[in-house]
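Duplicate of earlier report; Lysine-N-methylase input re-posted below.
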Amino acid sequence: MKAPRKALVPDYYAEFHCIGSECEDSCCAGWTVPINRDTYNRYKQHRNPVLAPLFREYVRKNKNTATQTEAYYGFMELKPDGSCGFLRDDKLCAIQKELGAQALCNTCALYPRQVNRFGGQPEQSLNISCPEAARLVLLRPQPIAFASIDGAARFQDAQALMRRFPEGHDGVPEEMAIFRELRSLCLAIVQLRPLALDARLMLLGMVMENADRIIIADTYTNAGDLEPVIVLGQQMLQHAEMLNAEFAKLAANQPFKLKTLGNLLRNTLADQENARFSECLADAVAALFGQADAGGAEGGDILGRYEAAYADYYRPYFQGREYIFENYLANEIFRQIFPLMNESPFRLYQELVCNYAIVKLLLVGMAGRHRGLNDALVVKLFQSFSRKASHDSVYLRCLLDSLREQRSESLVHMMWLLREPDR
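Output:
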């Protein structure tokens, strides 16, 4: 049997430990839990007197031929309240209690760890939809770096993979080297601290727009066509002062930003199943929109509330803490194999910017509601938002469809979502 390959991980990865029943949220409620085929078969054949009746009641086969895979062969059917049938009163898992952690399905055994494969390289990261992972990723002042660790066989099982690029094979080595350079450039941009964070996203957008033009062109042949884009982006990293000045020249468009983000909130984030996010959303909507519906978010009252909350309560907390958003972006770029998991890099960039802008808007609203921010509130919002954004494919589709319907898809529109007026 081949020994597992070393895995590439962020340097925070080894520090994560589940805090179990002390956690303020539950990863055993509110979402679909896929079960890989091997585990499904073991569960259905098990004779444990405590678990066998539960396996019969709550373990279901995925009969949808369009979605059934080795990794998603079955699923846990949730109880009417949205919780897993194996969740005990002490917030711990009955399967783990009776049979040990090795008996868990891949989804439950690995979460919040995520396993990807880039070419022949295993990669592991943390999803901040877990509160403890969110604290670990977001609240560290130093930039995220990367290291190699010994891989575990279970983590490199094909049934455990969340993402693989290229799909189904390791790719051409020469092309993978270029794609690796593109990913490294994206990380270098969002971690370029001499450049203001929103200006970093401007530069990232310019690179993604250029990459998009090349990839969708009829003349595109292979990854080598992207090398001029990568070289230009690497050169731009040396000109942070100039890029800051260019970003400062962009005009802010607060009415557009508030209307667009208000529509995105209304169209994509109405979610009563996620209680923690519902609390954050209610706080932000009450502070900024003064109503239960974020639609039609245009007008002087809303703009005034936003400006006051931003200046008085949001900005004082985030002065010196820009690394929180930087860490969020860097973690997402690595975790999502950005910008390669879509035929259009710019579409993935739109998704990244919209999520960033939505979180920022909600934090401004929460800051106004609570007359300030603290680490606990910030982690609560990032974590509960990520439960929606990271695990709900319908959300992502609605997000981009909403942009298209509003004809707000260009790089200029993305800049308007980012730009704050000079104060």
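The longest strand covers residues 113-118.

Merging into the original ticket.
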